[in-house]
Amino acid sequence: MLARADTDALPVTEATGLPYASAVDGIMHACGHDLHVAALLGAAKLMSDERGAWTGTYLALFQPGEEIGAGSQAMLDDGLVAKVPRPDVAFAQHVMPIPAGIVATAAGPVFSAADSLKITVYGKGVPEVGLEPHSNPRKHREVQKIYRVRAKPAAVRPSPKPKVCM
């Protein structure tokens, strides 16, 4: 059995002031990856502690680069397939806003996507009066609107609805 967690941080400046905030400027765990890692470490410890209660092989796989869509390929390029046994089943987890104590499952890919986009905005840039295209909030919203309209896929396949188990 293989259990996988994504480990990468996001290029976001953390301004929470919390004692456990990121110590690296411009980088933070902003979408649950720290929870993913903690959950997989906890599961691995439980599996190790209860080794006599089950048979087989348990693989805890920590994947970097999930947010940029390159981590799994980098792991394959690094020889992952030759380094670990082929699992009979693979599980990945993701946090979602459901009540504590509930597990939701679905067959097939769920919560999976990787997108990259490069936009060049042309216009005046006068830092002294706040006309920087990259930092003007109104311009930023306009660029987001352009992206949403132009990048909308022609056909949208809905994700499978998770089954809720209690």
From TrEMBL:
Domain of life: Bacteria
Gene3D superfamilies hit by this protein: 3.30.70.360, Zn peptidases
Signal peptide from the UniProt entry: none
Matching SUPFAM superfamilies: Zn-dependent exopeptidases
InterPro entries, alphabetized: Amidohydrolase, Peptidase_M20
Xref: PANTHER family: METALLOPEPTIDASE, PUTATIVE (AFU_ORTHOLOGUE AFUA_6G09600)-RELATED, PEPTIDASE M20 FAMILY MEMBER
The protein, known as: Amidohydrolase
